[in-house]
Amino acid sequence: MQADSLEQLFVRPRAGGLELLLVLESEAGDRQRVTLQPPSTKDGSAAGGGDDAELMATEHVARWLVRRGYSLAPRLRVRRESGGVLADAPALRVALQRAFKELEEGEPGWD
């Protein structure tokens, strides 16, 4: 059975931008790791660190998941790396859940 539910998201700074590590799981326990890089910002610059870039990254993840028919795990965990230290990022978790819900419901503005 293919992994189809996002269990964890790690947001890491990498080379002037962000790297997103998704940990997907199936009900049977199959686990898959996927690494994404969010697209550049609208002005063409790389999406570097900072709150805005991280929020844009959660929207990117939500779109990626919805387009593939994946879901969010009930106990989703989002963690942010800063200075080599991982910490829970509840604001990013909420932003991801909100973006995912809006996309699933077909809210306008998510083209």
What does this structure look like?
This protein is an alpha+beta fold and 111 residues long. About 5% of the residues have low confidence. Helices cover 30% and strands 37% of the residues. It contains two helices and five strands; from the N terminus they run E-E-E-H-E-E-H. Strands 3-2-1-4-5 form a five-stranded mixed beta sheet, with helices on one face. The protein is globular, with a radius of gyration of 14 Å. The N and C termini lie far apart (30 Å).
Please give a handful of descriptors for the protein shown.
5 strands; 5-stranded mixed β-sheet; 111 residues; alpha+beta; 2 helices
Widest beta sheet: strand line-up? 3-2-1-4-5
What integer value in Å does the Rg equal? 14 Å
Structural class: alpha+beta
Query: In this structure, how is the largest beta sheet organized?
Result: 5 strands, mixed
Give the N-terminus to C-terminus distance in angstroms.
30 Å
Task: Tally the helices.
Answer: 2
Overall mean pLDDT stands at: 87
The best one-word shape is globular
> What fraction strand?
35-45%
pLDDT < 50 runs, ≥5 residues: 42-46
Give the total of beta strands.
5
Helix content: 25-40%
H and E string: EEEHEEH
Fold blueprint:
Elements: E1 5-14, E2 17-25, E3 31-36, H1 51-68, E4 71-82, E5 85-88, H2 90-104
Parallel strand pairs: 1-4
Antiparallel strand pairs: 1-2, 2-3, 4-5
Helix pairs in contact: 1-2
Summarize the structure.
The protein is an alpha+beta fold and 111 residues long. Helices cover 30% and strands 37% of the residues.
